[in-house]
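re: that complex we talked abt at group meeting.

here r the seqs, copy pasted straight from the sheet so there may be weird spacing, ignore it
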Amino acid sequence: MIKVEKLTKRFGGFTAVDGIDFEVNKGEIVGFLGPNGAGKSTTMRMLSGFLPPTSGRAQVANFDVFKDSLRAREHIGYMPENVPLYTDMRVNEFLRYRAALKGVPSRRLKERVGDVLELCALKDVEKKLIGQLSKGYRQRVGLADAMSHEPDLLILDEPTIGLDPNQIRLVRELIRNLRRHHTILLSTHILPEVEMLCSRVIIINRGRIEALDTPQNLRAHLGQVRHILFDAIVPDARIAAAALRLLESVQSVSHRADGEWTIFTIQAAPDHDPRESLYRHAVENKWRVREISRPPVSLEQVFAEVTSGEEA
Amino acid sequence: MRRFFILLSREISSAFHQPLAYVVLFFFLIVTGFNFQAGITLLNTGPGTVTMVQAFFNTVYFWFPFVLIFPLITMRVFAEEAKLGTIETLMTAPVRDTQVVLAKYGGCLFFYIILWAPSLLYFLAFQKITGVNAAGAVGSYTGAYAMLILMGLLFTAIGCLASALTDNQIIAAVISFAAILGFFFLGLLSFLLPSTGTLLRELTYYFSPVEHMMDFSQGLFDTRPIVFYVSSTLLVLFATFHIFQYRRWKS
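got the structure back, here u go
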């Protein structure tokens, strides 16, 4: 559905997007992750045909986004960041105008507008001026607009930003329901959102793709260096920590006190799990143990690791 | 073509969706009404050489609102979309840049024509009530209104260009106001300079709206101003199109 080759965008001396390559297949929901200014929006703008790239190519539905822009755009529903809308129009009027502009034939306009109003739960505000709507409604109007011409691909730039938790849930559910009919590329800051929605994740930083995989694989792959939590009562925390450091495959140990308990954070070597030897060590020393666990690596940690080069 | 008309109708309706439109329409009616009344007063002072149409289209009361009106009509068109960011959704719909520019221009022109339409009623009423022919000849009407539209073509285009330059409406208005006023005063030079001979006077005559209107409202059709207005309109629209593209590509 999307095919991007060596896509680059420079603004003067600043390289916003630096030769990225990726592909998105039909029916996928792909999450675009990255810190602010990483090049997410710029990439999305290029894909939607709004910005021409400095170099490189991008195809949507087998049409070149730049050389065959009009036809590519017919297959794209794009919702920009902050959802700009005409505030002087009524919701149904706006959707009708947008659908017509994007090539929905006149005889199907009414049905199509009715459909998206229903799908985005906008029926109760269809006669209201967009300028009077709350942020959550506007977001949904933007989404309704993006899919009004039944595009194959939806490009959504931070669809849940600035919404309250209830509205976020609504929009998220909406997106999840859309996956049956559309391929979706969305960008977000909210990591749980990616885990909930996306089949693949692209992590982008300083204009380059740092990682591209399923959320599960990313976690497994990047979570090789893992932390183990070991919570016990020991006679002397510093001596105990030194002893633990000597165990096989333990790389480093830090500890802090929690009342009479000491919580050790142990960093293990990649692909090793020292929990069993930890347990044996505790038994040998007759330590009272409250917890030995390996907390799952969240995408948040992966994200932080990938985008800042240091661990969370 | 369908897309162009969709865009055009959106532009026209958005022109009337803003309160400014009605303020402009209201004050414009007042000023042109006053201008008309001043014309009648002039005719009442005794036998003269001018017709009602000439008296209406060649006074300061005509030119004053005329020059003021374009920045108000056009300042919004590109600047507002750039400011709101709706330009992004607009330009990611399958529409051509030329379609967008022409639709916006067309919308402004439509509003401009609507502004002037009531003035036709003035002359109609004048003729009905006084029984005096307002124009002398039909050519005087067609000339005056043709010139009105010709000048409208160019000045609306200048306004659109100014609006495409910035995303601040006020700045757009100031730029177009300055450009139109500068152009207008340059044309006035042909009145101030000694009447014969000088090259500058000859030259300024070619782009003097006041001179053009004087000729045309007498029913004196001259192809030179027509060519001038049409060709410079095309030039300005061409520039608008490129600035519009350039600013987007840079953003």
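couple things i noticed - The first helix of chain B runs from residue 2 to 16. Chain B touches chain A through 23 residues (CB under 8 Å).
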